[in-house]
Design goal:
The complex is a heterodimer. By secondary structure, chain A is mainly beta. Chain A is built from no helices and 9 strands. In chain B, strand 5 and strand 6 form a beta hairpin. The chains are: A mainly beta, B mainly beta. The interface between A and B is medium-sized, with 23 and 29 residues.
Chain lengths: ~110, ~110
């Protein structure tokens, strides 16, 4: 399984866009990029996923580079409730297993 | 639509005992995966069941086992508990593989004393 690299922590001002980067340089053709977040040891919450096209839903946007070696999760207007650990995961489309890395601790500040 | 339900939420056991945790997936979901989360190792994949068959297994000792019933509900069992088994155990429910999302339950917090 491809591994991911994320910065350990990031700060963002409330109301501003939060851009969380992820490097997955060894990703292969049938592997999807997933993003989850976890707040206070609750169960991880699904945010968004994609294969090669950019994706947007009510929570966030996912931008995947053309070579698929990196991606960026964008929270358009961060709120204090978005403070969490964000995990970027590369998942083989044939299997239901996620390999979580260390994630990025996003701190949204007033 | 009800989410993923894990029971119990909290559990305290003594070293050497065994424990069984339960996970009820979202209605219609046939895949259930289990994860262990500890401060030192983070979130680690244990195993995945689909239609009552184990499809994938992580790198855990044989003391960790699981099963899935015909209604897709799943249980995991840990025998001969060790202090290091103290963790948050999470299950995730998914319709199938491929281009689908997995939804996690709130977890069972196991403390071994």
């Amino acid at each position: 399984d491809a591994k991911t690299t994320q910065p350990p922590s990031m700060d963002c001002a409330e109301g501003r866009a939060a851009n969380l980067p992820c490097n997955h340089s060894t990703i292969s053709g049938n592997e999807y990029v997933y993003w989850y977040r976890q707040i206070h040891s609750q169960g991880p919450q699904y945010i968004i996923h994609g294969l090669k096209n950019n994706e947007t839903n009510e929570m966030a946007s996912l931008i995947i580079t053309e070579d698929r070696k990196s991606s960026t999760l964008i929270l358009p207007h961060a709120t204090l409730r978005d403070t969490a650990v964000y995990y970027c995961i590369v998942r083989d489309g044939n299997f239901n297993k996620f390999y979580f890395g260390s994630g990025t601790k996003l701190n949204v500040k007033p | 639509k009800a989410g993923v339900t894990q029971t119990p939420r909290y559990l305290i056991k003594t070293r050497g005992q065994q424990v069984t945790l339960s996970c009820s997936p979202i209605s219609g979901h046939r895949s259930v995966s289990w994860y262990q989360q500890t401060p030192g190792q983070g979130l680690q994949f244990l195993f995945e069941y689909f239609s009552e068959t184990q499809r994938n297994k992580g790198n855990f000792p044989g003391r960790f086992s699981g099963r899935q019933f015909s209604n897709s509900r799943s249980e995991m069992n840990v025998s001969t508990l060790e202090l290091g088994d103290s963790a948050l155990y999470l299950c995730a429910s998914s319709f199938n593989t491929g281009n689908t999302e997995a939804f996690f339950g709130q977890g069972t917090r196991l403390t071994v004393v």
